[in-house]
């Protein structure tokens, strides 16, 4: 895929960045139903990390290189994100693309984007107004015993108060309670999310927004 600086410059000028046509070359040879499936895979890139196994499976079925499948899906994702970000009409989706696509291929891409555009535009708008972490207060609570807790090990839980700002609610407080196993699982999920934020997939999508 083209570099970030070139991509941004050409997107501002309404032109397709260099290399995009080459990445879409595979799409040109696909039947319309396969083109729609590729568009669906491109749409999924905004919701989840890339799955190389999906690319390999599609490549095997088409008899092509998995890298060609991945490049085509990423290129379609770039086209749709760029158009949604600029709120361009569906008929202008392929404008400036230095690649002549068959009529049925173009129609399949435009039709898919037309159906997804409202949701994509909303996701791009709301994605910039997510709540931001401001602080966290916590208190450890331990139930040592009671009438119905004889001979049982003490149970510990955490009372959490999460402070956030921004987003639809503005400044807000969120009260939560969790026991130690669930808190450990939450910490593990957050660590995985931080790793994903640094992944090539996340950086690539961020460059397109």
UniProtKB/TrEMBL annotation:
Q: Which InterPro entries match?
A: COMM, Commd2
Among PROSITE patterns, the record links this protein to:
COMM (PS51269)
Q: Where is the COMM domain?
A: 132-201
* One protein family per Pfam: COMM_domain
Please give the start and end residues of each transmembrane region.
none
Tell me the superkingdom of the source.
Answer: Eukaryota
The protein's name in its UniProt record: Comm domain-containing protein 2
């Amino acid at each position: 895929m083209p570099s970030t600086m070139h991509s941004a410059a050409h997107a501002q000028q309404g032109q397709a960045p260099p290399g995009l046509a080459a990445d879409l070359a595979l799409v040109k040879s696909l039947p319309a139903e396969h083109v729609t499936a590729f568009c669906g895979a491109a749409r999924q890139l905004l919701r989840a990390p890339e799955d190389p196994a999906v690319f390999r499976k599609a490549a095997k079925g088409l008899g092509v290189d998995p890298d060609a499948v991945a490049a085509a899906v990423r290129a379609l994702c770039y086209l749709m994100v760029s158009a949604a970000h600029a709120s361009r009409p569906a008929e202008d989706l392929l404008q400036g693309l230095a690649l002549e696509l068959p009529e049925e291929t173009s129609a399949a891409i435009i039709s898919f984007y037309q159906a997804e555009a409202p949701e994509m535009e909303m996701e791009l708008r709301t994605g910039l107004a997510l709540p931001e972490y401001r602080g966290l207060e916590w208190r450890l609570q331990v139930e040592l015993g009671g009438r119905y807790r004889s001979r049982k090990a003490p149970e510990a839980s955490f009372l959490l108060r999460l402070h956030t700002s921004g987003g639809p609610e503005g400044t807000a407080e969120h009260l939560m309670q969790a026991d130690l196993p669930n808190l450990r699982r939450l910490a593990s999920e957050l660590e995985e999310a931080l790793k994903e934020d640094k992944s090539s997939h996340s950086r690539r999508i961020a460059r397109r927004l």
